[in-house]
Amino acid sequence: MKLYYYEHCPFSTKARMALGLKQLDATLQVLLYDDAATPERLVGKKTVPILVKDDGTAMTESLAIVHYLDHLDDRPMIEQAHSQAVTAWIESALPSFQQLGYPRWAQIGLKEMGSREAHALFVEKKSQIIGDFNAALSNSQQAIEDINHRLTLLVEMYGLDPVRPQLLLDDFNLFPILRGLSVTAGLEWPDSVRRYVDELSARVQVETFFSRAC
Question: Which is a Pfam family this sequence falls into (predicted)?
Answer without folding.
Answer: GST_N_3
